[in-house]
Amino acid sequence: MTTENPEVVEGIVVENTMNIRKTAAHAVKKGTHAAKKAATKVAISPIKLANRAVYGVCYGLAYGAVYSALVVSKVFPDNGVVSKGLHEGSESAIKDFEAKQAIVDSTVVNA
Predict the structure, then answer these.
(1) Average pLDDT in the 28-57 region?
(2) How many percent of the chain have pLDDT more than 70?
(3) Contacts of 16 by beta carbon, 8 Å cutoff, 6+ apart
(4) What distance in Å separates the CA atoms of residue 7 and residue 20, rounded to the nearest whole number?
(5) Mind giving me the DSSP string for 9-65?
(6) Mean pLDDT of 32-61
(7) What is the DSSP string of 76-91?
(8) Domain assignments of the chain as residue spans, ordered by start
(9) Distance (Å, rounded) from C-alpha 3 to C-alpha 20?
(10) C-alpha–C-alpha distance, residues 28 and 94, integer Å
(11) Cα–Cα 20 to 30 A to 2, which of 24, 46, 73, 86?
């Protein structure tokens, strides 16, 4: 290596001390950026964990309710009173929910 001002740092020949300083400053900046990025991921992790837990509970409740109703409806004859009651009850629940949701939505819009 032919340089005008060679120096030896820890057994390595480098061109000059300015390169060492630039390299060190770059390494510090890169390390700081990596630390900030890692800290952001760690800070988000508890929120993601809570979201996954809430999702899992809601999914389990919905799946259990619907699957149970389907199993019960298949156990009894299709034209029986149990199947008819489950079918009409679910339709009434949907209509009532939509009517109450419309009232809530209109209240929110008017507020």
Answers:
(1) 79
(2) 70
(3) 3, 4, 5, 6, 7
(4) 10
(5) ETTEEES-HHHHHHHHHHHHHHHHHHHHHHHHHHHHHHHHHHHHHHHHHHHHHHHHH
(6) 81
(7) S-TTSHHHHHHHHHHH
(8) 77-111
(9) 15
(10) 60
(11) 24
